[in-house]
Amino acid sequence: MNRLYHVPLSPFCRKVRLCLAEKKIEVELVEERYWERDPDFLRRNPAGKVPILRIGEKNYAESSAICEYLEEKHPTPPLMPSDAEGRFEVRRLVSWFDDKFHSEVTANLLYERVNRKITKSGYPVSANVKAGAKAIKFHLDYMAWLLDRRRWLAGDNMTIADFAAAAHLSSLDYISDVDWNRSAVVKDWYAKIKSRPAFRSLLADQVPGFPPPEHYTDLDF
Amino acid sequence: MNRLYHVPLSPFCRKVRLCLAEKKIEVELVEERYWERDPDFLRRNPAGKVPILRIGEKNYAESSAICEYLEEKHPTPPLMPSDAEGRFEVRRLVSWFDDKFHSEVTANLLYERVNRKITKSGYPVSANVKAGAKAIKFHLDYMAWLLDRRRWLAGDNMTIADFAAAAHLSSLDYISDVDWNRSAVVKDWYAKIKSRPAFRSLLADQVPGFPPPEHYTDLDF
């Protein structure tokens, strides 16, 4: 059976999990404590990162390369538009969330509050947490600006860009770091995506020492 | 005419410049002092990054999304294989260089030595420079491992993965931070890519205050 080596709250793993589930590709989820640098793990992926998707004897690394691969091998249901302009916009937004949102928000909030404790690398740096709390407002407003003009983030249909954004926001929601009252359109968008069957596995995640808030699994949050 | 807003030694801009030149798409190069946060610039790209490719009235941001877009709109000459496995490998390696190599090597060497001075953000942190000098050895060895098995980094043909790697290495070569004697196959690979007409514009770059070493432009380096 296919395997996904992952960390439950990693937004990059969650993006891949959403693509796999939406395309109904079954995988066994295997938690990977990547920070322990297990030699077997490094053999599977010299970059030392999660996620790694194992199909047969082959290991696939790098979340965006994996999602594009899944889209090419399993085109139904489509998670990318068919035109070059539309595909550009999906890829631009995936980079926006996995690069800019990640460094400005996810790293400052999730990694400070959760990953430091799990990987035993010190206490949260409060200046970083403050910077993350400030930056997420700008990002939620940018999403609202997009969603005022489009049904989904990259256009009229749900794409990998929505999964990239939802992956980051769902991990932050697990630690109550998303103010859903800031924008009605963003909340409506998240409610739509949260209610998809593909999302169920994410809502069932439990991280020892970090119980999720009640609203995390609630579809009427 | 098309325009590319860029910074000469930015590896992300160089990757796009190589794709444009290889596909013979003419652009006017406009240097962008992104760290000055000019309002016009931020209007073109709210992410505040280079490169930005302007085609007609539209601005394209995020270097990997731009390269994939160019590949779809201008498929000749191809810079991606046609099969899903091959395309996965190209994208995996582009992420390897733009993410792992970038944070471990480029940020520690180029950004410490050059960008800090240009953007007036303090002196190089010597611990970072040391970490970068150590990490580039591992990366050159990984490239050698790949090139012992393949003609180009991702397979039998030159792809965007080669341009991603060459973009980082050429910027580092501008400040003499690449030990070309470490691996003959890596040196041969770089000699092949450096002699392409698409590379000429990169070899003509001049950064005030940082004259390139003589071997930088030499095809027999």
Provide structural commentary.
The structure is a homodimer of 221-residue chains. The N and C termini of chain A lie far apart (35 Å). Chain A has a 4-stranded mixed β-sheet, with helices on one face. In chain A, helix 1 links the parallel strand 1 and strand 2 (28-31). The first copy, chain A, is built from 8 helices and 4 strands. Chain A folds into 2 domains: 3-73, 3-Layer(aba) Sandwich (Glutaredoxin), CATH 3.40.30.10; 84-217, Up-down Bundle (Glutathione S-transferase Yfyf (Class Pi), Chain A, domain 2). The radius of gyration of chain A is 17 Å and the shape is globular. Chain A is of the alpha+beta class. Chain A has helices at residues 11-22, 39-44, 63-73, 84-118, 126-147, 160-174, 184-194, 200-203, and strands spanning 3-6, 28-31, 52-55, 58-61. Helices cover 52% and strands 7% of the residues of chain A. The model of chain A has no long low-confidence stretch (mean pLDDT 95).
Question: Main traits of this protein?
Answer:
homodimer; globular; alpha+beta; 221 residues; Glutathione S-transferase Yfyf (Class Pi), Chain A, domain 2; four-stranded mixed β-sheet; 2 domains; Glutaredoxin; 4 strands; 8 helices
